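Shipment paperwork, digital attachment
Item: protein structure file
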Amino acid sequence: MSSEISGTTAASRPARRELANAIRALSMDAVQAANSGHPGMPMGMADIAEVLWNDYVKHNPANPEWFDRDRFVLSNGHGSMLLYSVLHLTGYPLTMDEIRNFRQLGSRTAGHPEREAELGIESTTGPLGQGIANAVGMALAEKSLAATFNQPGFDIVDHRTWVFTGDGCLMEGISHEACSLAGTLKLGKLICLYDDNGISIDGEVAGWFTDDTVKRFEAYGWQVIADVDGHDGNAIAAAIDAAQGDTERPSLICCKTVIGFGSPGKRGTAGSHGAPLGADEIEATRAELGWDSPPFEIPEAILSAWDARERGADCEKEWTDLYANYRVTHPELAAEFDRRMHGELPQGWREIAESAIAEVDAAAADKATRQASLIALNAFAPTLPELIGGSADLTGSNLTRHDGSIDITGDDAAGNYINFGVREFAMSAICNGLGLHGGLTPYCGTFLTFSDYARNALRMASLMRLQNIFVYTHDSIGLGEDGPTHQPVEHTASLRLIPNMRVWRPCDTVETAVAWRSAIEYRDGPTCLILSRQGLPFQSRDKNQIENIAKGAYILRDAGGTPDIIFVATGSELALAVEAAERLGEEGVAARVVSMPSTNVFDLQSEEYREEVLPGKVTARVIIEAGVTAGWSRFAGSAGAIIGMDCFGQSAPAPKLFDYYGFSVDNVVSVARQVISAN
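Attachment content:
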C-alpha cells in the first residue's frame, strides 16, 4: 500500500515526522490528563507506527471487522495510547472524547488495550509477551485457512499479522515458547517490530537483559533485520519491505529507538516510561517537536493525511470483488467459508450432537473420561472442520488427536493438529490467537496440574470472553504413582473462580460428551474439561436426565419424596456417592445423588430448578470431590459435610490413595450417618 493513495499529493502531504508527532502529542496529553499511563513507548515508536499504518497495514476503518484485513497486536500494551492515537487518526470510530477520557471509568480507552474488534483493537494485551503469542496464533490461523480455502487465482485469505513488542515482552518466557514454534511452522506473514530502546521501568536494561536478541531469533528460524533506525522513515520502510519479501520465515525488525522521543528532559530515561511527563516537560516537548496545537487538537492537514478510510474502502472492494467471483467458481467452499467466518455451527448440529450423545449412552462403556473425551471428539470433529487443536507433548495421555487429525507443519498448514511441544503457556495463548482471528475453534491439552504454567492465558481468554477449549487430564490423586508434583488438588477449584470460565468435571462417557457439546456451543468464554486418567463406571440415565446434564447439575439417583440426605459429587467421586446411596437405601435412608459436573453452569439456572435439585429444606448434605474443599460450603450448608482433601497427595497406586484420603464407600457412608444424626 502506498501513501499516495491517501488522498493528498506527495507535495502537499505533511512530513512523516509531523504525522508521527500527532501520536506523540495525543499520547503525552492523554497520559497527563489521566495523571496515569505510559507516554514513553508511544513517543518512541511513533515514527514506526506512522510508516506502518500509512504505507503497509491493510485495513478499512469503516469496516474494522472485514475478514481479510491485516491483524495488528500491540504486545507492549502499556503503550496503549499509541494504538488509540492511530485508530483515531486513521478514521476508526474512536472519538477524541474517548482519547480525552483515557483510563477513565466507562471509557473505551482503557489503560491497556481491551479487545474491541469494531474499534480495531484485535486483542487484549498488557501482560507482557502474550500479545506475541496471540499474534503467532493469528498468523497460524491465516496460514491454515489459506491452505484450506485458497484456490488458483483466488487468494481470498491473504493478510499479514503485525506486532509491536518491547524488551519486557522478550524477557518473558512465553516469547521464547511462542517464537520458537513460529519459526518451526514457517509463519512468513508474521512481522514483529521490536522497540529496542534499552529502558524498562527499573532503568537501563543492560543490567538485566543482555541476550543477543538477533542470534536468539535467528536460531528460531526467523529472518532478523537488525539495527534499524526507528526514527528514520526510509530505514523503517526498507526493513518492512525486506520482511515482506521473505514468505518462508517470520521476521523480527529490531528498531533502535529513544523512549520518550521529543521530551528534552526525560527522553532516553525510565522517567518517561510509566508516568506523566508533567506540565512543564510537555510544554518543553511541544517546543522541541514544533507542535503548536493545543491538547487534543490535530491540524486539519495532518488529520487528512492520516485518514485511511478511502484507501481502506478501495482495499476491501478489491477483495469483495474477488470473493464474489470465488462464490461463483467455488460455491461450496464459499458457503463453508461464510459459515466459519460468521462463527455459525453447521446445519443440523443439534441433531448431530444429540445422536452422538445417544450413541455414547447406548454403548454404556466404562471409560476414563479422557478416553470419553476422545470418543466425543471423534463423534463431533467430522462435522466441525473448524476444530483445530493439539497438546503440549502429551497427545497420547491427553488423547487430543482424533481419527481425522492431520499434523500442521511448516511446509503444509492444511491440517488441523498442532504439536505444541512442551510449551503450555504459549500453547494456550496461541490458541487464544487462533480464536481471535476467527474461522477456527481451538482446543488444547495438557495435565491439569500444568494449567498453572498457562494460568494468565486462561485469564486472558476469560477476560476477552473468547472461546477456547482447554482439555485437562489426570485430574486428581487418581493419577497415582507420579505423586504430588503431578496430582492436582487446588486446580479445579481455582479455575471455577475465573469469571466467564466454564469448568466441567464429568463422571462418565455421557457427561463428557455433553460437556464437549457445551464447550463447542459456548461462544462467550473459555471452557475447561477436567478429565480422569483412571477408568470410571458408566451411569445409567433416562432421557430427561441426559437433557439436564447441560444444566450443570441434576438428580442422578433418587429415593422418591423428600430425601433424608443429598450427596453432591463430581467426576470420579460420583460413583462413590451412588454406591453410598444404595447402601444407605438398604438401611431405609432416602438418599438423593446429585451429579454436578459444572458448578458454573448450575449457578446460571433458574432459582426454581436449583431448588428442585437442592431443596433448601434438606440440610443433610455431603459433598464429595477429590480436591480442596474451598468453594463447596455454599452447597453443603452449615449442617452438611465436605469430603475433600486440603493437602497435597502422595506417590502410590491410585486405589490406595483414594482409600487413604477418605474417598471410599465406607467413609462416605460413615460421614453421611453423622450428618443425618446431626440434623
